[in-house]
Amino acid sequence: MNPTAALAGATPTPYWLDDAARPDALPALRGPAQADLAIVGGGYLGLWTALLAKQRDPGRDVLIVEGATCGHAASGRNGGFCEASLTHGFGNGLARWPEELDTLLRLGRENLAELAATITDEQIDCDFRSTGVLAVATAEHHVADLADEHAHMRSHGIAAELLSAAEVRRRVDSPTYLGALFDPDVALVEPARLAWGLREACVRRGVRIFEHTPVTDLRADGSEIALSTRGGGVRASHVVLATNAYRPLLKRLRLMTVPVYDYALMSEPLTAQQRDSIGWVNGEGISDSANQFHYYRLTRDGRILWGGYDAIYHFASAMHPQLEQRAATFEVLARNFFETFPQLEGLRSSHTWGGVIDTCTRFSAFYGTAMDNRVSYALGFTGLGVGATRFAGNVVLDLLEGHETERTSLRMVREKPLPFPPEPFRWFGIESTRRSLAMADRNAGRENLWLRAMDKIGFGFDS
Fold first, then answer.
1. Full-model pTM
2. In 3-state terms, what secondary structure has residue 130?
3. Taking all residues of the chain, what is their mean pLDDT, rounded to a whole number?
4. Rounded distance, CA 420 to CA 427, Å?
5. Is 49 exposed, middle or buried, given 0-12, 13-18 or 19+ CB atoms closer than 10 A?
């Protein structure tokens, strides 16, 4: 099918936010406010941190200031893959923290179970389903790579399954599949509804949330931290920064992450005949094994979300609403969709969207404190923050409270990634890496000198 025809008439907005259940915005802050704990940012990290803080101490006065509305950005428009992994996948954890990987795996599974329990207890209607995820091989070298990862996963107690081409095609039928690795420790959610449900749970516990209240400055003022906002300001004993892809309030963090644009399509609902033609009766999440990979999943109303592949960085970390629509990327996504599922010829896209995620050079979140341990932060989730943000909420609270816990003793938590260089070297490095990853995909996975050098120094850029 002509990709342009498949995209004709699609609504240029995230499907998850185009929902009649979307709550009204909460009032903006007017005048000064005081709190024990102030949280900047109303995405997953900010909301989980507030909820966990109230669970630890119901009497604690907690306040969230959000520049737009809770869940409006990456937390509301992602693919909804809620993974147990805290390290951006098993392979990244094995490569970077092998000596504590078993601990990280256990903590990740505990975090996912507690997340699921909260969704049940708070009656959050976000279609949480423990489906697992299939990493599918679409090139011969992927098959060997998945077999190697399967052996490592099994040796660390993960009940992963290695599937042949015939076995995976009995689950989901695509002529491009040559095999797959099934990871059971992954769930799917409707991301915006999860954010809205967390917001409601916070409000029920007395968390004050001010939306459309961007913070413009952060400074120490005596024994307190002062946040400047339009039309008011906040003073708090402690502050958590949960802004992720947006410009950090702490200057020390401004070379630690970069904003990268990720894009997705949502199909119209499949007919019964179309659904039968691909199977997919268990509704697993799916990603392919290329460097430039796709992620895709079914929705509760029978649509297919199809995203990924292109990861676009703009010079000087540029961010603008106009960059959230990119026709060239949507056409690539649509073309690759029909190559994967030719039996769905004629299916159209109902929604197209894009937006920034924050990435760091180690691909997974990092943590820290500032201003005499009165400010803590976590950022760098690189697109896998749906589950990991809850774990991060506990970490940033541990750090603020000065508690040495199993979480804070992790090398993963104690160490920072390498910073990105300043411009123009940042753009050159990211673009060189992106092009090299695409070249490796075309060259049976063989990495060029640039990628080998980046791996050696621990400096990466994940597509």
1. 0.96
2. coil
3. 95
4. 10
5. buried
